[in-house]
Amino acid sequence: MSATPPPTPVGVRTLTEALRRFDADALTRLLGLRPDLAYPVPADVAELSAQATTTSSVTRALDGLNAWQRVVAEALAALPDPAALGDLAALLGAEPAGCSAAVVDLRERALLWGADDELHLVRAARDHLGPYPGGLTPPSSRPLDPGTVDTLLAEAGPEARAVVDRLLWSPAGAVSGADRAVTVGTARTPLEQLLARRLLRPAGSDTVLLPREVAWHLRGERFTPEPVPVTAPTLTGRVRTPALVDRAAVGAAYGFVHDVELVAHTLQSTPHRLLREGGVAVRDVTGLGRVLGTDHQHATFVLECGAASGLLAVGDGGRLLPTVDYDRWAEREPADRWRALAAAWRHSDRLPGAASEPGAHALGPESEAPGAASVRGLLTELLAQAPVGTVLDLTDLLDVVSWHRPRLVRVGGVALESVLSWTWREAGWLGISSLGAVSGLAGAALAADTHPLPADLAEAFPATVEQIVLQADLTAVAPGPVPYRLARELRLLADQESRGGAAVFRFSGASLRRAFDAGWSAADVHRWLEHHATTDPPQPLAYLIDDIARHHGSIRVGPAQAYVRIADPAQVAALLTHPDASVLGLRELAPGVLVATAEPYEVVDFLHRIGHSPAGEDSSGRSVTAPDPLRAPRRSAHRPRPDVQAGEAAAAVLLGEQSRHTRRSVQAGAGAGPGADPGATAANLSRLATAEQTQEPVRIRYVAADGRPAARELRAVRADAGLVRGVDVASAETVSIAMSRVSSVDPAVRTSPLD
């Protein structure tokens, strides 16, 4: 939201007094610019001021400044405290208006307080910027005038001038015997010539300093080696036709959605277990790349993005599987599915590009990179501001990002240039850029958390089709994207041979046996084709269906641990003489009835392997179908993030608004914190007692150990000794939460992190 700048705090003596003059808009903006101050919510303005001046918080705030704001902060640190706006502009050689705007920015961030003629930079900021901000030492007690400096340097000689030049922007030099007694007559070395003439001054026994006035004069009265732009460089370039770029971008976006769906289908049907040290084996990722018809890097990104969205996770036995949220996601419209993926990508603190490097693994620990989300968010914001169709150069992009985040050199140990290169490539896969240019989906990705796609972009996604075209070569062509339910049934009946909006599926004996194993009959397959095909099944396909159906189920398998019923004596003899029969413990109990010491599924796999088509049955002889697809437990798509509503709620508390609505907003958005309402605590205890009696699950919101808001669904809840105990519904682990950290207790409502 837009916020008016806080008023110039005239006559204030401390930062706390300055913050007390902030209105709701100014407080909300402060908590938006420095979100760490809202978790947990400060009890009052004094506590907010204390949190805002801690070393860790100030360091994060300074790292978030752009190049101009950072230079202004350094200049204030180089000036005596307090400083005047006029002195600041003179030191920087800049227009007062530009300095004034930066002062307002620093004041909004609570890094600075005081009126324009009495500006106080907070002490933690001065300490962070070091003893020599801007490469200037503190003012000398006996400064040299510029003319004297030139005269003394000429006397010291050119070698001494070279020493001075090395210290112009970094004024401290290490040297032994810096405090030696030396005069102009006894000076022998260039260093001694400078010390004797007070062009260098000792700071202890092993350090010399270049005096402030000497550096300032020799620099040409410049605070920085090169001028720092007051405003950000603009992203410019030649412009492609926006409509063409958007069409290509939507095609890439839908293709990526389809890739995630295809990978999830492959994972649920083919085991992919994570390595002991974490991550997916390179050969498995390469195999998924073959399924997608793409390379290792793209397949890695699909896996990383699917996991970040909470669609893929590790299930039983370390196997990578779709989660219980995947089916809900797959049933959405393509535009909404893309929006969930784009939001998860933007907020993920991982670098998929690092996971695709040699020696690394998809979903492995190598791609963990705290701060990656902020870089991605900044890049998305910059792309959204550029006109649609603008062709960008990576070097220009690096320059603009470097202005916005001058302290950002590496992310997760990786050079910023590599991170931007990977991010730009990923933006192309997602459709945020296309044909080397910015697309309209950049703005949609920026607002993907809260807003649906604009109507024109949403309508550009291909519409789903319910009909397929059967061909005589045993293939079926889907002329457009098919709904999730139809796609799942089609992939059961046939093998997908191509990806994209219009896909090709091939029927075969193996694929039809897969459907019969799942409980379909020949009549079911014919009815399905009659309903979804535009024409009658070609004769080769109809014959294949009926032929596979006649042979399917001629062998019956059940538990004994397993038994096998066979009508054909020749088949019995062939099985009993097979080399693997003894491994399975197969033996004949009666004519046509065999038993095995192996599990039924092992016997079924063996029979498939040697060319038979068995059908499973239970202990009463009834045919059984394949189990439901395996799913991993639900995982959070990404960690809770500060937002505008949380900032507004925290600002309301700090302003003393005690309404129930505001209190509930604070608790739901940022945890109970020190300002929790006693009435709300009593209500929480009452709900916990009711849940304990009824054994109904509840959803508990609380402040986690790292100060961030969190939520869990718990069953078998008990509240005693100041703790809430229960079993997490998603992970089945037993957890204990301090009652003092609980912000709200509500009936359990299954909500996906993708919503």
TrEMBL record:
InterPro entries tied to this protein: XPB/Ssl2_N
Keyword Transmembrane helix among UniProt keywords: no
Region named Disordered: 612-647, 659-681
Entry superkingdom: Bacteria
Start and end residues of each Helicase XPB/Ssl2 N-terminal domain: 469-590
UniProt keyword Cytoplasm present: no
Molecular function via GO: helicase activity
Keywords assigned by UniProt, alphabetized: ATP-binding, Helicase, Hydrolase, Nucleotide-binding
Name of protein: Helicase-associated domain-containing protein
